[in-house]
Design a protein that fits this description.
Blueprint lengths: L25 H6 L5 H16 L3 H12 L1
Length: about 70
């Protein structure tokens, strides 16, 4: 079974270069379709670390507030 994309269709980049919706970088987004399942799992692991990092949710919230 293929690894599903983490995209949630909230495609806005934050000032620190991450997608507000899925926490991927532009390079990770662009490379996703070319990755094998192991590569996709590595990206998902990176996303999990980013989401758990102190201030991760605050960064996304700040980005939404600025874009209004």
């Amino acid at each position: 079974m293929s690894v599903p994309s983490p995209c949630i269709n909230v495609c806005r980049m934050t000032a620190d270069g991450l997608c507000e919706g899925c926490f991927r970088t532009l390079d990770e987004i662009a490379a996703w379709s070319r990755q094998d399942d192991d590569g996709k799992r590595r990206i998902l692991s990176s996303i999990a670390r980013r989401r758990e990092a102190p201030g991760a949710q605050a960064t996304a919230r700040t980005s939404r507030e600025v874009s209004r």
